[in-house]
Structure formats: structure tokens, C-alpha cells
Write a structure and sequence with these properties.
The complex is a heterodimer of chains A (122) and B (184).
Chain A: H1 6-17, H2 29-75, H3 79-85, H4 87-110
Chain B: H1 4-12, H2 16-38, H3 41-58, H4 68-87, H5 111-126, H6 131-142, H7 147-154, H8 158-183
Classes of the chains: A mainly alpha (122), B mainly alpha (184).
Chain lengths: 122, 184
């Protein structure tokens, strides 16, 4: 039976504390982090892209409406009045178009085109 | 060789390959911190991923006031602590219950085995210590951080760090002494 001196025990503790755990990260850890980051960056860019286009569209519509208001005043026409009367058509049409596009995009993503064989090997 | 002064500007320009090098350089450090705090390999892997994503997002705020390793260690420490708080449990209950059954044989040819078991036992004891002790002991002994660096990571005063180190080691020594007396 071996007797341990205080120094031996201290050495054992120090050795245990400085020994790395047997467990570790998976070999592909950095690749996984990179993929996750890439995914997040792509999402961010996509939101920026669509947000940018939405901003341009809304700005263009506002400028157009202001232009028509100016025309109405200058030439005493009633274009803006008739637009306001049918405002729900304008308000609903554009979001609906975007919704259809979005649903279409989701449907294609969910059910990719299946390969069909035209000939059978016998 | 990883040079943070070269890599950081590249990463800030969106170079993910440079970030890959950063991950490879510091993954060991981050894993040790997370694993010592949560004690579950799967949880530690998830937290490590979260840590590196945080590092990527906040790298623009790194001002070279401290070493990059210390800065990353601080993020890892706070992320792992948040995880513990969220789950409202400490890690020691995840250790195997039959830890007392580890067998010790002290014949010389089996020294490696004994050493391994002693390591396991010390780590088992360590996992029962409060997380501040665990962190201080890990950073000092395993990662060879200085007192100042540990202070930056844990936000504990230097005196407290020294006291935790002393008390933690003393406790482990006492317990190990009892263990060796009883089992050998």
C-alpha cells in the first residue's frame, strides 16, 4: 500500500486541475458555426433586400400621390379624389400580389419538382 | 499562425474563412469554460456555438484593450452562466451516481490508470464546487490565465480570486486525501 505525502497529494490535485477533459468539440464544429453564420447573414441580407425594395416602392407611391395632388391643385382635376374613393383596391392589391408570390415561393420550397422516369429499365 | 491583428479586420469585412481560423484557435478555451460550468457535453457544444456567434456579431466592439482570448473567455463565461440561470440547475447532478465505485489499484505498472481515476475524482469533486470556484480553478490551472486576466473574465477582485484558488485547492486536497486513505 502506497502512502501519499502532502506534497504527493498536492501534485495529484495540480495535475488533475491542469489535465484537459476527455470530452471535446466535434471535428466539424467550426464548419457548423460557419454554416450557421452564413445562414444568418443570408437571412439578414434577404431582409435588407426586400426591405429596401418595399421602401423604394412606398416612397415612389408617395411621390406619385403628391405629384397627383399637385396636378389636382394646378389644373383643378379630381384624380386623387377618385383614387381615394377606390383606396381599398390599391391597399389590398399590392399586399395580395406579394402574398401570392410568397406562397408560391414556399410551395416550391416545400415540394420540389419530382423526377419522373420516362423509360423503364427491364 | 493566428494573428488577431490581421484576422479581425478580415472578419469585420465578412471573411468567414478568417473567422474559421479564429474558431479553431479558441474553441478549446471556450469549450473548457462551458464544459466546466454546465458539465454536459451536448449543452457545452450548443453554448460554444452561441458564444462564437456572439463573438462574430460583437467583434466590431473589440478595442484591443485586453487580449482577444480574455475577451472571448468573458463572453463564454457570461453565456454559460446565463444558460445555468435559465435552466435553474447546477451541473453536478448530471454526474454519474456510481462515482463512488471507481476502483483504485496502486501497483506501479498501473500508474496511468490510477492517475486517470484520480483526475476523474478530482473533477467530480470540482463539479460540486460553486461555479466561481470552478471557473477560477479552470482558468488558472487549465488555461494558465494570470490573476489580472481572470479578473477581466469573471469580474471578481484579485483578492477574491486568490482566496477562491487557495480554498478550492485546499478543499480538493482534503477530500482527495480522505479518498486515498479510504480506498487504497
Amino acid at each position: 500500500m502506497k502512502k501519499y505525502s502532502e506534497e504527493d497529494i498536492e501534485k495529484l490535485v495540480f495535475n488533475a486541475l491542469s489535465t484537459p477533459p476527455e470530452e471535446g468539440l466535434r471535428m466539424d464544429f467550426s464548419a457548423k458555426v460557419r454554416n450557421k453564420l452564413q445562414h444568418q447573414l443570408q437571412r439578414k441580407n434577404r431582409i435588407r433586400f426586400y426591405g429596401g425594395w418595399a421602401f423604394i416602392f412606398i416612397s415612389a407611391m408617395t411621390v406619385l400621390f403628391l405629384g397627383l395632388l399637385f396636378l389636382d391643385k394646378a389644373y383643378q382635376t379630381h384624380i386623387t379624389k377618385s383614387i381615394t374613393e377606390h383606396k381599398w383596391i390599391f391597399i389590398l392589391t399590392f399586399p395580395l400580389l406579394f402574398l401570392i408570390q410568397y406562397l408560391d415561393h414556399i410551395m416550391i420550397k416545400k415540394a420540389p419538382f419530382k423526377e419522373t422516369s420516362t423509360s423503364e429499365n427491364k | 499562425m493566428f494573428d488577431e491583428r490581421v484576422a479581425i479586420p478580415k472578419i469585420l469585412n465578412g471573411d468567414l474563412r478568417a473567422f474559421d481560423l479564429l474558431v479553431k484557435q479558441y474553441e478549446r478555451l471556450v469549450f473548457h469554460i462551458c464544459f466546466k460550468l454546465v458539465s454536459s457535453n451536448d449543452d457545452a457544444q450548443d453554448i460554444c456555438q452561441e458564444v462564437f456567434i456572439k463573438v462574430f456579431k460583437s467583434l466590431k466592439d473589440f478595442s484591443y484593450q485586453s487580449k482577444l482570448s480574455t475577451w472571448i473567455a468573458r463572453i463564454a463565461y457570461s453565456t454559460a452562466l446565463n444558460h445555468i440561470k435559465k435552466n435553474k440547475r447546477d451541473s453536478f447532478d448530471q454526474y454519474p451516481e456510481d462515482i463512488e465505485n471507481y476502483h483504485f489499484t496502486l501497483t506501479d505498472p498501473e500508474n496511468e490508470l490510477i492517475k486517470k481515476d484520480v483526475n476523474k475524482y478530482v473533477n467530480y469533486l470540482m463539479a460540486q464546487l460553486p461555479h466561481q470556484y470552478r471557473m477560477v480553478l479552470t482558468l488558472f490551472h487549465l488555461e494558465e490565465f494570470s490573476y489580472q486576466e481572470i479578473e477581466q473574465v469573471t469580474a471578481l477582485p484579485e483578492g477574491t480570486i486568490k482566496s477562491y484558488l487557495f480554498r478550492g485547492r485546499k478543499l480538493l486536497k482534503e477530500r482527495l486525501e480522505d479518498y486515498l486513505k479510504n480506498d487504497v
